[in-house]
Design brief:
It is a single chain. This protein has four helices and three strands, in the order αααβββα. It has about 130 residues and is α+β, with helices and mostly antiparallel strands. The protein has a domain of about 45 residues. Strand 1 and strand 2 form a beta hairpin. The radius of gyration is 30 Å and the shape is elongated. The two termini are about 45 Å apart.
Length: about 130
């Protein structure tokens, strides 16, 4: 016997009974095949339309505009860094060293704090991550 036609007990139905009734009312009589959910589906169509509309004009926007940052050869990826605000730019040196204008090759300068943060994030990011390690 379905919950929609079950004889009522005294008083108000329980929350479980109400939830079962709602679920039964919402469930279609013919089972549908499960649809795969893609959260980027609507955005992908907009992106495809933009690529079609702009065509070759979009190509320069997709290319990186900044040259890769030349890290001093003595640095090893993952070493601790020292980040300082030097007024008009940010200076990154190895921990324990200070920026010396006589040796500018021992430090990196960034005029933008976001670029500095991106470099630091990439510096400490794992290159090869094994998902089984989680």
């Amino acid at each position: 016997m379905s919950t929609l036609h079950a004889p009522r007990k005294r008083g108000r139905p329980s929350n479980a009974e109400l939830a079962a009734r709602r679920l039964e009312a919402m469930t279609p009589s013919v089972p549908e095949a499960p649809k795969s959910f893609n959260p980027l589906g609507p955005f992908k169509t907009h992106l495809d339309r933009a690529v079609e509309a702009l065509g070759p004009e979009l190509e320069p926007l997709l290319q990186p505009t900044e040259p890769p940052i030349a890290v001093p050869p003595s640095w090893t990826k993952g070493q601790l860094l020292n980040v300082r605000n030097a007024g008009e730019h940010y200076v990154i040196t190895l921990l324990g060293e200070e920026f010396d204008p006589r040796y500018p090759e021992r430090a990196l300068k960034f005029t933008n704090s976001a670029l500095c943060q991106n470099f630091v994030s990439n510096w400490y990011a794992r290159e090869n991550h094994d998902p089984r390690a989680r």
